[in-house]
Design goal:
- InterPro entries: VWF_A, vWFA_dom_sf.
- This is VWFA domain-containing protein.
- With 474 residues, the chain is of the alpha/beta class.
- The protein has 3 domains: 156 residues, no CATH class; 201 residues, von Willebrand factor, type A domain (Rossmann fold); 57 residues, no CATH class.
- Helix content is 50%, strand content 14%.
- Helix 14 links the parallel strand 3 and strand 4.
- The termini are far apart.
- About 8% of the residues have low confidence.
Length: 474
Amino acid sequence: MAPAYTAGLAPLSELPDSLFSLVVTHPLGSLLPRANQVLAMLRELGKGRLPSPGGWLGTSTERRIRQLLVRSSALEYCKDTPDVARAIVQDVLLVLEQVELAWPGTAGLLCQQGITPERAERRARARHTRRAINKLAEQWQQRISLWQALDDVAEEFGIAPAIGTDKDSGHLRDRAWFDLIRLSRWVADIRQLQKLLKLMGQQRPDPEQSASLSQLQQMMSPRDNGPRERRLPGIPMETQGITRSDNLSRMLPLEAALLGHPSLHMLWHARRAEQSLLSYAVAGVMPIDAGNDWPLPRAGKGEGHGKGSQQGPLILCLDTSASMHGLAEQVSKAMVLQALRLAKQQQRGCMVYLFGGAGELLVLDNQTLTLPELLDMLRGSFSGGTDVSTPLTAALTRLQQQEWRQADILLVSDGEFEVSRELQAQVEHGKEALGVRLFGLQLGYATALHAMRKVCDLVHLFSDWRSLEQAARA
C-alpha cells in the first residue's frame, strides 16, 4: 500500500517550490487533478503552446483563460523561460482562489431573492470569474507592456533582457529595470546631453592630418562679444525679495514664531506642506563665455587623399563621489545609458570608467557588458571621494591600443576635485601625441569650473536643475 500511495502523490514532488503551497491549499477542485493540470500547463507554456483542456477547470473558465493567453501575447514570453511560465500559472491560481472565496457570499444573497441554490451558484461563479479574468487581463497587460519595453531597451544596448531566466536574481521585478526604462526616456528629452554625445567621436580626422586643437577651437568658437550672464532662480547667491516655499533655510523669522504657539504650530505644518511659508527669494548669476559653446564637428582628412573622416569609440569617465548624489547621479547614469545606446546603433566601442576615491575604479565595456553589471550600476548609489587621476590615466592607456586610437573622452563630474601637475602634463602629452579630444560635462555651478578646465579642452556646464526635476517627474 505504501508504494502505491507514494506513487499517487508523485505529481506533488514535481511542483516548483513557488507553486507548491498554492496548489496544495487551493480551494478549487481536488488535489491530484489540480496538481496534474498545473504541471501540464507549465509544460505547454514552456513550449509556447496553449495548455490542453483538463478536468480541473470548468469549460467556460478554461476557455476564457486560453483566450486571454492568446490575446495578451503571454505565450511568446513563456517559451523557454520557466520563470515567466510559473509567474503566469501563479497569477491564474491566485485569481481562481479569489473566485472560490468570493462566490459563496454572492450565491447566498441570490438565494435570499428566491433563486435556487444550484442556479445561484452558477450565476455567482460566472459573475466573479468574469471580474477576475478582467482584472487578470489588466495585470498581464501592464506586465507584458513592461517586458516589451525592456526588450526594446535591451536591444538598443546589445544586451539580452534575460526575462525570467534567473530565478534567484529577481530580474523580473527588479527596480533597476524600471530605472533602465525611465532614464532611457529621460535622457532623450534633454537636448543638451544629446548634442554632447552626438558630438563625441564624430568626423574625427587622423592626428597627423588634422590641424592643432587650439587653431580649430579659435576658428570654430564664436567671436568674443564681451561677458554675458545668465540668472538662475533658486541659487543662494543673491536675495531678490519675498516668495513662498517650504525651504526652512530661507524661511522668515515670523513664520518660526508659529512653532511656539500651542495651536498655531499645526498651521505652520500645513503651510509648509503647501509650500506657502514666507521665504526669501534668492537667485544666482552664472557667467557665460565662449568656452561653453561647442564647435561644430571637425572636417575629415585633407583634400586629395580620397578618404573620409572616421567615427571613433567613446570613453566616459564618470565621477561617483558623494557630492554627485541626487539629480547629478541620475544625469550621470542617463549619460551612460545613452552612450551605450549610441555605440550600439553606430557599432562603436564604448568604455565607461566609474571612479571614486584613490584606486576605486569600475570598468564597463559594451563589448563584454552583461545584464548584472548594468543593473548593479543602476542600483548603486554614489559615495566616497574623488580621484580623477585614476580614470584619466586608465583612459589614456586605453588610447594606446589600436582599436581605441580614435576615441574621445568625456569627463562627467561636479568639478570638486584636485588636478596635480603630473596629471595635467600627462593629459597634455596625450592630446599632442594621440590627438585625443577631452570633453567635460560639469554637473553643478560655474564656481568649480577651474578644475575641469585644467584637463578638458571644452567644458559644458549643465545646471538647469529645474528642467531635470520636471523630466524626473514625467
